[in-house]
Amino acid sequence: MSRKVPIPAGQRSPPGWIKAGYLQAVGAVALATAASWVMFPIFDLADLIMTYLLGIVVIATQYGRGPSIVVSVVSVASFDFFFVPPYLTFVVSNAQHVLTFAVMLVVGLVISGLTVRIRFQAEVAQQARVRAETERLRNSLLTSVSHDLRTPLATITGAATTILESGSRLDQRTQQELLESIRDEAYRLNRLVQNLLEMTRLESGTLQLHREWHPLEEVIGAALARLSTGLGSRPVTVNIPRDLTLVPIDDVLIEQVLVNLLDNAVKYTPPDSAIRILATPTDGQVTVEVADSGPGLPRGEEDRVFEKFYRAASNDRRGAGLGLAICRGIVQAHGGRMWARNLAEGGVAFLFTLPVTGTPPASVPADA
Amino acid sequence: MPDPAVVLIEDEPQIRRFLRATLTGQGYRLFEATTGAAGLVEVGSRQPDVVIVDLGLPDMDGLEVIRRLREWTAIPIIVLSARGQERDKVMALDAGADDYVSKPFGAGELLARIRVALRHAAGATREGDETPFTVGELRVDLLRRQVFVAGKEVHFTPIEYKLLTTLVRHAGRVVTHQQLLREVWGPAHTDQAHYVRVYMAHLRHKLEAEPARPRYLLTEPGVGYRLAAD
Fold first, then answer.
1. What mean pLDDT, rounded, does chain B reach?
2. What residues of B are in contact with residue A238 (Cβ under 8 Å)?
3. A113 with A88, same domain?
4. Which of A58, A198, B148, B181 could disulfide-link to B139, CB 3.0 to 4.6 Å?
5. Helices (H), chain A
6. What pLDDT, on the 0 to 100 scale, is given for residue A149?
7. Is any Cβ of chain A less than 8 angstroms from the Cβ of B36?
8. Is A240 an interface residue toward B (CB < 8 Å)?
9. What's the domain range around A64?
10. Is cis: bond before B104, omega within 30 of 0?
């Protein structure tokens, strides 16, 4: 089973003519007419015209040129029909009123023209703001990424040139340490590139899920194996009900989610502190929890940690701040949710749901 | 016996340089080719013990190199590929490659793969010598059809046993889901990948101290399984 993931689309939009404001234009005239009807016995015709003009201004500020013209023309027609003798006909008895209509129409069109232009200018300004914002984000990405690329590169370059230039004068232990830092920084660089690629794939919508039915235990096991060096001697407990259903997931991507979560736990909690992984089935989904016993997240930041380039502390330079954003992206592509919660007993738990949609495969044929 | 010969088909000079240091340092005789076409010629003339192929070559697809080699030789082929290209790895394995390493890889990882490949190639020529397979606390005696963990015998259903022995025959090497389905369930079931996963879970619960942190039955997500050989 393999399918394209629909990337979050905009909301369903109403029919075009409502969106464009034609219905609202007619509504505004109806309102102005109703108000004028009430005012008619007491007020002058000139005041009624003002009421109609108010409707024209409101529509012109909200919608485009089309509805503005419609509201102007229909206003003049209604005014004539209801309030100019002979009433309830479009016939005009006094030629003076024709001039009134003409002026009213011109005023209406001018007002709508002006407001439409103002609105257009406001839109241009808004677009410029969005562009500036995008530009700012792109710059912060560049700053962040180039810093994160340069730090390991600086270490690698420095360590390698040291060995090349004064290798024979260094003692065995120093050489070993330099070589180890070259290796570790290269791995770190690799993880960063991997995360950047993953983020790009998620954002461009080219990520394809290859969903198959998997036992979670296996995916968790693969993630733990990939991080075995980083986990070292930390106590890790895994709690999965023995009869947990298979889940329809892309195993490579969900393994990546688990690896990122475990990697975070390793980075932000003291060595030897415990990590718990828990899977619980609930209605139509499985909830997976990865909990550590470290310092937890700053209060109120539980949701911000999933933002791109977020870092727990401003001086923390251990990652590009992409890991959790990628996790959430992958989980959402699977139709699940992801969130974090500080634990009363200390530490933080990252939780995500995986919907069990579709029919699990018919049970595996038993063998004697 | 002369030192084992390796033909390396790789276009990146930096990777060739590092592999030259690693492999010659370990006593392998190394022959290098920078294109698929040159590699095919090199394998034909040198008759090496192992071939290492990069999947991304300038002149032809690494997959094509594997297919052409498999037309006439069973020499072990190890593929160099990048993480995130699991489909390519599966295709390379299904085309006849024996194993893969993901770039970037450490020297130790590649050397381990080469040792396993050499062992399997040698094993194929002395069929019938069925000394029990042992790794860690696990011992599988194919002749007596007995399996022990820490000296205690473990019992299996027929399919579980067949799955385990298939992995033992490929010990240390990655085996794809397709291969396992074909060899254990037969060619009619190759679209039922979850069979393998469910039975692997059974095996882990019988053999592993911590089934969620397996020591023997390792998963390679998106590709298949590997029975640890050391």
1. 91
2. 210, 212-213
3. yes
4. B148
5. 16-20, 22-39, 45-62, 65-83, 95-166, 172-204, 216-226, 228-231, 251-268, 323-333
6. 82
7. no
8. yes
9. 11-131
10. yes
Nearest Cα residue in chain B from A248: B194
Nearest residue in chain B measured CA to CA from A279 = B212
Residue A6 confidence (pLDDT)? 42
- Are A216 and A294 part of one and the same domain? yes
- Taking each helix axis from N to C terminus, what angle separates A172-204 and A251-268, rounded to the nearest 10 degrees? 130
User: Which residues, listed in sequence order, are joined to residue A342 by a DSSP beta bridge?
Assistant: A348
Query: What domain count does chain A have?
Result: 3
Subunit contact B193:A197, Cβ cutoff 8 A:
no
pLDDT computed for residue A312 by the predictor = 59
Contact A367 B220 (CB under 8 A): no
Length of chain A: 368
Residue B96: what pLDDT? 93
Q: Which of residues A184, A204, A224 is at a domain's end?
A: A204
The CATH number for A218's domain is 3.30.565.10
Spell out which residues of chain A touch residue B227, defining contact as CB-CB under 8 Å: none
CATH number, domain containing residue A166:
1.10.287.130
Residues A332 and A224 in one domain: yes
Positions of chain A with pLDDT lower than 50, given as ranges: 1-11, 314-315, 317
At which of A185, A204, A223 does a domain end? A204
Measuring CA to CA, which residue among B127, B69, B130 is closest to residue B98? B69
Asked whether the beta carbons of residue B222 and residue A251 sit closer than 8 angstroms, the reply is yes
Report if residue A367 sits inside a domain. Answer: no
A185 with A80, same domain?
Answer: no
In the prediction, which pLDDT does B182 show? 92
Strands A348-355 and A285-292: antiparallel
Interface of A with B in 66-125 (CB under 8 A): none
Neighbours of A28 (CB within 10 A): 26
Residues forming beta bridges with residue A209, ordered by sequence position: A3
CA atoms within 13 A on the CB side of A58: 16
pTM: 0.73
- Number of H-type helices and E-type strands within chain B: 8, 12
Look at B192 and A277 and tell me if their CB atoms are within 8 Å: no
For chain B, give percent helix, strand, coil, nearest 5: 45, 20, 35
A6 found inside a domain = no
What's at A321, amino acid-wise? G
Check whether residue A52 and residue A180 sit in a common domain: no
> What pLDDT score does A10 carry?
40
Please say whether the beta carbons of A223 and A263 come within 8 A.
Answer: no
Residue A309 within a domain:
yes
- Whole-angstrom distance, CA of residue B7 vs CA of residue B69: 12
- The mean pLDDT values, 10 residues at a time, for chain B of 230 residues are 91 92 94 96 96 92 94 95 83 94 91 93 66 92 92 95 94 93 87 88 95 94 92
pLDDT, position A14: 59
Q: Tens of pLDDT along B141-189?
A: 988 999 999 999 999 999 999 999 999 999 999 999 999 999 999 888 8
| Subunit contact A222:B201, Cβ cutoff 8 A | no
CB-nearest to B159 from A215, A225, A367 is: A367
Residue A167 confidence (pLDDT) = 73
